Amino acid sequence: MDYKLLSDYPRDGVDRLLNVIHLFRDIRATSEWQYDVLLKRSRLVSLSAGEPLLHVGDVDQWVYFLLRGELQVHVDDAAAASGDRPLAVIRPGEVFGDLSMLLAEPRSATIVASPGGQEIQVLAVDCTLFGDLEDFSLLHLPTKLVFYRNMTHSLRWKLEVYRSKYPTHELANSHRKLKLYTGPKNSKEELLALADQARALARILLDWNAEFGSGHLATEEADMSDFLESILS
């Protein structure tokens, strides 16, 4: 595994690379200076085929975006090492690792570079900057609002995928029952509400993932990895 600072690359190349990621594009549109702050807390990670990136039980505050190649999601290190069929496949443009960051809990899956594939490139973002909702010394309120809006949107999309697949499951409408924020926009109150909503959505998504991990949901489909794509993290 090879970690490199974004400052090691030409700036115009970095900007083009990150322009496909909604979070970075939205933050840059809000403030070039805030975009620079986030770049300094981000790394590019290169992996060889079959190399692990994350392990079950890891504890950190990093969120990841796959830029190139393919990653596999396994229930644990043993399943990854044995070459078992992955629970999910992560493809370019997808975000992962967000559940652990939002809930401050150990990682619930092992993620490895797909064997026999091309070199994998991942953007890793240190999200400790977003954790303290009262601290605006480095990241300002508009930047943190962009982050939590992106997180809630991503989580709701993943939950809608589960709902569309299993509309009669007891968890199917859980995320739709969460109260949406209706107060003043672009305020600290909105930030706090978005953070609470993101954590609640993350908890529901973990419950769905646990259903698959335990085998409670139907698994007779020909290729579950197509459905689980981008769900587990």
Low-confidence stretches: 218-225, 229-233
Mean residue pLDDT: 88
What summary fits the major beta sheet?
A: 5 strands, antiparallel
N- to C-terminal distance? 19 Å
Under the CATH scheme, the architecture is Sandwich
Quaternary status:
single chain
Shape: globular
Strand content: 15-25%
Helix proportion = 40-55%
Number of domains: 1
Order of helices and strands: EHHHEEEEHEEHEEHHHH
Radius of gyration: 18 Å
How many beta-strand segments? 9
CATH class: Mainly Beta
Describe the protein in words:
The protein is an alpha+beta fold. The protein has one domain: Jelly Rolls (Sandwich), CATH 2.60.120. The protein contains nine helices and nine strands. It has helices spanning about 10-20, 20-30, 30-40, 75-80, 100-105, 130, 140-165, 190-215, 225-230; strands spanning about 1-5, 40-45, 50-55, 60-70, 70-75, 90, 95, 110-115, 120-125. The protein has a five-stranded antiparallel β-sheet with strand order 1-2-9-4-7. Strands 3-8-5-6 form a four-stranded antiparallel β-sheet. The longest helix has 27 residues, at about 190-215. It is globular, with a radius of gyration of 18 Å. The two termini are about 20 Å apart. Residues about 220-225 and about 230-233 have low confidence and may be disordered.
Topology:
Blueprint: E1 2-5, H1 11-18, H2 22-30, H3 32-40, E2 42-47, E3 52-54, E4 62-68, E5 71-74, H4 77-82, E6 88-90, E7 95-96, H5 98-103, E8 110-113, E9 120-126, H6 128-131, H7 141-165, H8 188-214, H9 224-228
Antiparallel strand pairs: 1-2, 2-9, 3-8, 4-7, 4-9, 5-6, 5-8
